[in-house]
Amino acid sequence: MAGGGYRVRMTAGHEIVVVTPILKARDLTESAAFYEHLAFTVDIFSDDYAFVTMAGHELLHLATADSPSVAAVYVNVPSVDDWRTRCISAHRTPTAIRHRPWGMREFTVMDPAGNTLRIGTNA
Question: Does residue 20 contact residue 76 with C-beta atoms inside 8 Å?
Fold first, then answer.
């Protein structure tokens, strides 16, 4: 499911970049129940992360991780390694790349305004 579905698609050169909003959840179980009541499907991948889908299309993510972030998005890119290098060259300090239970290799980085970009590639 990661990387597919209906989302904003932006082209940077030849690569397709897919952006998905990440909403904060105080309690993942409570948030999952809310979205399921609205007829969405919720796939919980860990204690702090879930995908919300409808008809097989990934619409948004839920995260419980505490963060000083103003807002967050998931950016699905062809090469997470290249994008991490770009962040470093933009004088930002990204986290290490991690393999995640939802089938992605990803890292996070904050933009100058304090927004979180979670950047990943299908593993």
Answer: yes
Q: Given CA atoms 27, 21, 5, 18 in this order, what sign does their dihedral have?
A: negative
Nearest C-alpha neighbor of 1 from the set 73, 66, 76: 76
Which H or E run contains 74?
Answer: strand 72-76
Alpha helix positions (H), 2-110: 28-37, 80-89
* Ranges of each domain in the chain: 8-122
> pLDDT tens, 11-56?
556 678 888 999 988 889 999 999 999 899 999 998 889 999 999 8
Instruction: Work out the number of other CB atoms within 10 angstroms of the CB of residue 104.
Output: 21
pTM of the model: 0.75
> What CATH class does 8-122 carry?
alpha beta
